[in-house]
Amino acid sequence: MAKIHCFGSGLVGSYVIRYLAGKGHEVHAYDQQPHRVEGVPGVEVHYVEHDEYPHELIQDSVTDSFIINMLPGSIGHVCTTLLAERPCTLVDLSFSKFTPDRDDQKARDYGATVLWDVGIAPGLSNMLSAHAYRKMGPLRDLKIWVGGNPTGPLGEWKYMAPFSPSDVIEEYTRPARVIRDGESVVIPALSDRHSVDVDEQGTMEAFLTDGLRSLLNSIPCENMSEYTVRWPGHIQKFIDHRDSGDLDELQLIEEWRYDPKVPEFTWLRVLAEGSDGETMEWTVQDYGGDDGHSMARTTGLVTAICTEAWIEDSKMLPPGVHAPEVLSDEVLSRVVREMVSHGVEITGPVV
Description:
Elements (H helix, E strand, L loop, with lengths): L2 E5 L3 H12 L3 E6 L11 E5 L18 E4 L3 H11 L5 E4 L11 H7 L2 E4 L7 H13 L2 E12 L14 H9 L2 E5 L2 E5 L6 E5 L3 E7 L6 H4 L2 E10 L3 H11 L4 H7 L8 E11 L4 E8 L7 H19 L7 E3 L6 H13 L3 E3 L4
Parallel strand pairs: 1-2, 1-4, 2-3, 4-5, 5-6, 6-15, 7-12
Antiparallel strand pairs: 7-13, 8-9, 10-11, 11-12, 13-14, 14-16
Helix pairs in contact: 1-9, 9-10
């Protein structure tokens, strides 16, 4: 069993903490409001003041334990950047616009090893895309669709945020980097809007967001895009408020707040086409369970299972900063197998 320091105990973070503690690991949870994991067997709670960073509270040597950074956006980025200057083993799920690969050389110099973006998308989507590349060679086209939504249009916004609303807003405003004709280009977020058939839910709407990240440089592909999926009408309302100048972020955070009583689901599709026209396609779908809501499960399971694989094989990654697509098919197979065992529906080629 390992000692694991977990930064952030929100909807996703608390799921990871409970999962790893349930596996018998010694888990330390750091948060300003750690109420979701207080009293959980095997979890020691550490209260973080508003002017503190969690890594400052770790008393023992970081070389003797694992760290999982699940803090939101920019706060998480600061922690990862500072931890890259210590000989630590770090799983980063903070999803900041500032990606940790920029700290690769620094991490190597200090002996830090960082695995980043290990959620559902990015994360599992990267691993499946890399598997398709290993099977088919350079790709002609790669499309990823992902969304966490209520099971039906909810309220005025037809939406409820399954994770930090601030991160959702940032996702909507950050320009999307995509691949077109073999070249990386920048396209305004929310463009390329189109309808998409979401299995049991019917027709929803998809639009470009900046979710490809490391895939832009790791997989040879002629055309590559990632789309966020929402109920029709949601993103047009956001655009209208944005263009009129009356977009109130604090109000959106309140109006999009997660309500555990509302049925919700998470859906992912990865479609890869090889240069010869062969295709590989996977769909991941979850409606939550007794152990957590769907985004916490589908994101947190990937994070926790990759962490356990790393615990069992301490030499899995060398010092430096690594994206999830570098993980082996054996790790991917384990992730898929464990997710299915927890009731997550995954269809597509066997990995």
